[in-house]
Amino acid sequence: xxxxxxxxxxxxxxxxxxxxxxxxxxxxxxxxxxxxxxxxxxxxxxxxxxxxxxxxxxxxxxxxxxxxxxxxxxxxxxxxxxxxxxxxxxxxxxxxxxxxxxxxxxxxxxxxxxxxxxxxxxxxxxxxxxxxxxxxxxxxxxxxxxxxxxxxxxxxxxxxxxxxxxxxxxxxxxxxxxxxxxxxxxxxxxxxxxxxxxxxxxxxxxxxxxxxxxxxxxxxxxxxxxxxxxxxxxxxxxxxxxxxxxxxxxxxxxxxxxxxxxxxxxxxxxxxxxxxxxxxxxxxxxxxxxxxxxxxxxxxxxxxxxxxxxxxxxxxxxxxxxxxxxxxxxxxxxxxxxxxxxxxxxxxxxxxxxxxxxxxxxxxxxxxxxxxxxxxxxxxxxxxxxxxxxxxxxxxxxxxxxxxxxxxxxxxxxxxxxxxxxxxxxxxxxxxxxxxxxxxxxxxxxxxxxxxxxxxxxxxxxx
Length: 463
Ligand SMILES: [Zn+2]
Ligand SMILES: [Zn+2]
Ligand SMILES: [Zn+2]
Ligand SMILES: [Zn+2]
Ligand SMILES: [Zn+2]
Ligand SMILES: [Zn+2]
What we know:
Layout: E1 7-10, E2 19-23, E3 31-33, E4 37-43, E5 51-59, E6 65-70, E7 76-78, E8 81-83, E9 88-92, E10 96-98, E11 109-113, H1 117-120, E12 145-149, E13 154-156, H2 157-169, E14 185-188, H3 190-202, H4 210-219, E15 226-228, H5 232-237, H6 246-249, H7 254-257, E16 270-273, E17 280-282, H8 302-307, E18 324-326, H9 344-356, H10 361-373, E19 395-397, H11 398-414, H12 423-426, E20 429-430, H13 439-442, H14 444-449, E21 450-451
Parallel strand pairs: 20-21
Antiparallel strand pairs: 1-4, 2-3, 2-11, 4-5, 5-6, 6-9, 7-8, 7-10, 10-11, 12-13, 12-14, 14-15, 15-16, 16-17, 18-19
Helix pairs in contact: 2-4, 10-11
Bound molecules: zinc ion (6 copies).
């Protein structure tokens, strides 16, 4: 039996299929699932009249998932797990179903949930006049577009950064170059960035020469959202601010109220909001210490405040130095939670391998970091931004450090000869989907029985 043709019988038919079983062999056609509860039958042979119930698929309440009930006389495979006769399993969009006990000779189906009618409208094409995608400072199509609030006008990052520097040099509010509204907030606009790219793709004559772009990029300084103070003057003249001003107090950083380390914030100076403590930190360029984590581009205040010896403040939260410091100064005491795609069986095996070698996680991480630093490791799959620029002196946040350690431990495990693994781990077969396997996250038995610290050998994963 190689060919399976789907037949359905169900209770509440509706016009549109909400899901499909898509055969991985394109010579066969999709089985559409139109009812919330549907029994799928198979024909033994296309000519035969004998029809067998194969499985029942019931839509779950949550989006994109269903319950599969094995109605056939034999076991079937769902995401490589064996579902016995009358067994029940949850399936999600992407789950792979083999209608027989072994992979051999059976057609594999991928369960695919169709987009809901609401999200189908996302496929609408939008047409835009390139004139509406231009920066009013340089009059070109935006490059690395940023949006100013509250007026929501858009500019090139480089153009607006330069404008902001000039306003600050003149101790003035930052006014919108287009409408003169006082700017209180500016940030990169990823949605408009897509439009910017589409416009330049549609009309390549609108593109600027590479040299112009390089100059623009060199003055671009907005990496994350900037908050630009504008209410501080009143605060300074009032000893006890009225409650409605409490919000604006969040704009006060230690250097807004006092000169520290030879620096005091401009009255309307721009601030970043620390991702960790949500406190304000002055936005300064040409600093020795970074304000953004290289791995995630999010702002962190710990390195800045420790560089000017500020450890606490009345007006704003302040992070300690430990939260944001160079990789070379960080240590790891246990395997981070995110390691091996959060598969705790693999984490446990790695832990045992490390212990077996008489080492600590820190020693293994340090050894692999040396290889990383010596560029012995391919960084293309690294889960951090700017992977090629990361060195021992790069400041990273706690999350990014955990991701880095996880990446190093992946290399430790994948290069470990099989006979160095504990016997129970060495006996396991590799999962076809390797570290990209989704089943390892919802099927405990599968996660335990197959090795997932390996490259995918199946599926459309580019990992
Ligand atoms: Zn511009
Ligand atoms: Zn404006
Ligand atoms: Zn300040
Ligand atoms: Zn980070
Ligand atoms: Zn902070
Ligand atoms: Zn797997």
